[in-house]
UniProtKB/TrEMBL annotation, chains A, B:
Protein name, entry field: hydroxymethylglutaryl-CoA lyase
GO terms classed as biological process: ketone body biosynthetic process; L-leucine catabolic process
InterPro entries: Aldolase_TIM, HMGL, PYR_CT
EC number(s) from the headed UniProt entry: 4.1.3.4
Pfam families assigned to the protein according to its UniProt record, in alphabetical order: HMGL-like
Domain called Pyruvate carboxyltransferase: residue spans: 7-276
EC primary class: lyase
SUPFAM superfamilies: Aldolase
Length: 306, 306
């Protein structure tokens, strides 16, 4: 039950968060968001996605955003980008990417409905990307989705998650991020899933990517910490919401994660005040209040004091 | 790490929740809320508070509400009421109460600022209430507030909590509810607090009463379950908000707790669907959306399906 001394937070707001926002966000705002996240102390910021703008118009400015961000890259900060295929990888490489991410679902139905092929086929499609990345000296991170449930199948067997995670590892991913895409996990089911995955992938190469749709993400992170997981994905201000249920929560908010880790005495290197400021700022840009409990409480307390 | 097989949920929405609502709620609505909570399967529902209506106008209808609720009491359901002094206790008894609750703070500053006396003095003031209750065959539940922090003092020593809990036990309380009044606790600090308290009060007589102000309540409940705590207070729809920071969350939502326990395979006897319906209904009465993640997600999913 000893917790890790330090945790690495991978901020996914600018990509995974904004990609689910209906209103188009300008490249200026995206770059400014990333600059503020860097200033708050985040050391890994998923910057954009090299997908077709026909599929994801929000990421149509990917080359501009990545180029501008990298032109003033902060020392020691990683700026991974999502690259669903070789064409996307080549565009990312041309824009200067030094880290990319690929993904696979742990659910056959989800894979079929989302990318119209089986899990095995989808992973094979990524092989050229991981090979090209290795040749170019680019790091590759792997995402597994639906690790604790699927919107079409319901429960997902822990072994199915372990199989996809092991394949991504074998393909050369340096880290596997385990995504509870629908937020259906709880501390018990997440622990069972991790137990199966840890038999095939060293825990030092695992990350938790938990959605807070049913308010379980913080408890799931705590359960994962107890099992040795020391990397977590999060989205500032809870950006993005839930693509499967409008009005519900999606990615766990980065400030909620930092609050938990601060309380547990686990180092993150992230400053909570600056992070809450950033959550308030990007939420204002989107015309709303921050969705996270911590941002709301900290801002309410500041208001009460002033 | 074995969890309890079953958990008793004490629903505090009609009292602790509504008491913090600015708009006056009618006795009809309060009684209807309690009927719906019974129908959802809750077996303990804090019904009202016998305080002076000058202090808490929202509870000015205490006799009417309790009388009406008890007139059609459901078998096996407890309807505790808060009684801060002997006058309140006598009024509660006259209205038919068979269970009352008293309270003490674990923070000297909080006690002084809220009820203008020391912790020790406040507990002595309750002694006539517990003695009268014993004489009348009325059960007494004890609340300790500020168990994981105080709005004035910051951190609170676990031993201070244990001392108040032990005194309430010695005065005849059958159960001690440990309140994280400002939601400042996390799984580590809650565990340290429980460890100290459990040296003086058997865990079977403890309840967790955690606020979700910083989104930690579900993780704190999970940590408490791991230590054997099997009673938790919660408020349907997260009713009540946070009296120390307008706009922030207060009591953990009952539906979030039930969702967690359902996922962990721990029995509650509460039906999630009926509970979410109740959260939606009372929130509509108050002119807003339910505050809880689970209610929002379940309602959004129903909307998406229909």
């Amino acid at each position: 039950m000893t917790l890790p001394n330090a945790v690495r937070i991978v901020e996914v707001g600018p990509r995974d968060g904004l990609q689910n926002e209906k209103q188009l966000v300008s490249a200026d705002t995206k770059v400014e968001l990333i600059r503020r996240l860097e200033a708050a102390g985040l050391k890994a910021i998923e910057t954009t996605s090299f997908v077709s703008p026909k599929w994801v118009p929000q990421m149509g400015d990917n080359t501009e955003v990545l180029t501008r961000v990298l032109a003033a890259a902060k020392r020691g900060v990683a700026y991974p980008v999502l690259t669903p295929n070789l064409k996307g990888f080549e565009a990312a490489l041309a824009a200067g990417a030094t880290e990319v991410a690929v993904f696979g679902a742990a659910s056959e139905s989800f894979s079929q409905k989302n990318i119209n092929c089986s899990i095995a086929e989808s992973l094979e499609r990524f092989r050229p990307v991981t090979e090209a990345a290795r040749a170019a000296g680019v790091k590759v991170r792997g995402y597994v989705s639906c690790v604790a449930g699927c919107p079409y199948e319901g429960l997902i067997a822990p072994q199915a998650v372990a199989d996809v995670a092991a394949t991504l590892l074998e393909m050369g991913c340096y880290e596997i991020s385990l995504g509870d895409t629908i937020g259906g996990g709880n501390p018990a089911s997440i622990a069972r899933m991790l137990e199966a995955v840890m038999k095939q992938v060293p825990v030092a190469q695992l990350a938790g990517h938990y959605h807070d749709t049913y308010g379980m993400a913080i408890a799931n992170i705590h359960a994962s910490l107890q099992m040795g997981v020391a990397v977590f994905d999060a989205s500032v201000g809870g950006l993005g919401g839930c693509p499967y249920a409008a009005g519900a929560s999606g990615n766990v908010a980065t400030e909620d994660v930092v609050w938990l880790l601060d309380g547990l005495g686990v180092q993150t290197g992230v400053g909570l005040g600056a992070l809450v400021d950033t959550a308030a700022w990007i939420s204002a840009q989107l015309g709303r209040e921050p969705a996270s409990r911590v941002a709301r409480a900290v801002l309410a307390k500041r208001g009460a004091v002033s």
